Amino acid sequence: MENGFLFLDEMLHGVRWDAKYATWDNFTGKPVDGYEVNRIIGTKAVALALREAQIHAAALGYGLLLWDGYRPKSAVDCFLRWAAQPEDNLTKEKYYPNIERAELITKGYVASQSSHSRGSTIDLTLYHLDTGELV
């Protein structure tokens, strides 16, 4: 791993994560190139910011669930190749039921560059600490 990057769970004790792009449970229907393990990678700076957010969220009864962080260029390229393929309807109903696959690029859902590739962009949601239910 590059200097300055880390698995975020190493600094964020108690954080939950599910790196969907490392699994079959994502819009491509298979693990995405570049995602080697189901863990979230980010910069140390983003980990420190998330630790502060985690503290504030916990005071309100919430925890952080991380979905994505650092995204390798190979993953971005994989998304573009997938989006250029003809529709196969394998994941459409679950992930993009109201849009055509080809529109994912033109509408900006899939792009040739991603702020995630810097390691300082995180996709996350909150969950209730007492029940584990997503907010």
From TrEMBL:
Record key words, sorted? Cell wall biogenesis/degradation, Dipeptidase, Hydrolase, Metal-binding, Metalloprotease, Protease, Zinc
User: GO MF terms on file?
Assistant: D-Ala-D-Ala dipeptidase activity; metal ion binding; metallopeptidase activity
GO terms for biological process, alphabetical: cell wall organization; proteolysis
Catalytic activity of the protein: D-alanyl-D-alanine + H2O = 2 D-alanine
Q: Which organism is it from?
A: Enterococcus faecium (Streptococcus faecium)
Q: Is Chloroplast tagged as a keyword?
A: no
**What's a Pfam family this protein contains?**
Peptidase_M15
The question of whether Cell wall biogenesis/degradation is a record keyword is answered with: yes
At the top level, the lineage of the source is Bacteria
**What protein am I looking at?**
D,D-dipeptidase
Q: Which InterPro entries match?
A: A_A_dipeptidase, Zn_M74/Hedgehog-like
